[in-house]
Amino acid sequence: MKSDVSSLMKPSVVAIKQQEIFKFNARAKSIPGSINMTVGEPNFTTPEHIKQAAIKAIEENKTHYTVPEGDHQLLSAVAKYLHDKYNLNYDPATQIIATTGVTEGVFSAFNAILQPGDEVLIPSPSFTIYGPDADFNGASPVYLDTSKTGFKVTPETLKEVLRTNPRIRIFLLNYPSNPTGVSYTEDELQALADILRGRDVFVISDEIYSELTYNFKHVSFGNILPDQTILMNGLSKSHAMTGWRFGVVCGPAAIISQINKIHELATTSITSITQYAALEAYQNGYDDPEVMRKQYQSRRDSLYEGLKEMGFECPTPDGAFYLFVKIPSGYEQDDVKFANELLEEEHLAILPGSFFGIGGEGHLRLSYAASMENIAKCLSKIEHFLKNHKN
């Protein structure tokens, strides 16, 4: 065997780089006493009734394989929840799969759809898994810079990029957005759908933050363009269940049946205990997200106003739990250098915006999935840092 074993591996895998977010977080964790405002997960615990449902399942030895798409009672509960919350109408027998989080859902959908030479349209800045997932399948990510349009895709820019890139097979839409927190109104979504309708383009709509929407009611793209939309959602953010790894993929039966083939190969089925916890969340956890959402909104407002007073600019987040702020003029605009020096000098970890792709340069992402105490400390540390670094 060759000494360089990587030369024997799949080139598209070898080409994938470790995500900068993970490397930066590892550095932050190595600094004692550092305050971490990078974390993309709730700082709440899973609601007690959900944990108890999982414990009961273990005690009753419900620890065996389930069918690959997910327990049918669970899928029925998912369908009812999505209908009650968002007026979505999915047949639990043919149009829903339970996946190992949205991450696996996106991976399985990309693998089922993409062929070498295809393109994936990704509004940027964006969450960091989408581009590598496209590369892995021999497709090319097409990044659409949204920094000049309020971090939203406009009908005009969408129409133009589809015209100039005829091999786009997937439009990846994530809202409320990680990293910017912006979302779309129903009218804005309808305008995008008017451009997409009838094209041979799948819309993968990652709506994992749908329950954490502040300024207006969340409208699902699955309602706007149902025949072309593959909806991704789950419980990680809404019910503080990141470690349970539960997601759902929903869409037309002809699409879901093909994605399920990849899902079977990747996982066989997700853990039975997670499914019993998810069943409890979907049946009896309707109000769980609201308790968290109200606290996130208070934290958002506190962090937003504090940063605004220091000269940072950003859109008011419509949802999720992130601020994506522009470094004020008069200070170092290299966001990676800014974040590294802030970590070294103030022991405060926030992420460089350029980690999230085109349009993120000169920005920083802060997570307000943190205590009010840490938000206050964060603002104090940034204020002190700015005083020492003004050009």
From TrEMBL:
Pfam families attached to this UniProt entry: Aminotran_1_2
InterPro entries: Aminotransferase_I/II_large, AspAT/PAT-like, PyrdxlP-dep_Trfase, PyrdxlP-dep_Trfase_major, PyrdxlP-dep_Trfase_small
Keywords for this protein: Aminotransferase, Pyridoxal phosphate, Transferase
Top-level taxon of the source organism: Bacteria
Transferase as UniProt keyword: yes
Cofactor or coenzyme needed: pyridoxal 5'-phosphate
Gene Ontology process terms (BP): amino acid metabolic process
GO MF entry, a single one: transaminase activity
Residues covered by the Aminotransferase class I/classII large domain: 35-381
Stated family: Belongs to the class-I pyridoxal-phosphate-dependent aminotransferase family.
PANTHER family linked: AMINOTRANSFERASE, ASPARTATE AMINOTRANSFERASE
Name this polypeptide is given: Aromatic amino acid aminotransferase
Organism: Companilactobacillus nuruki
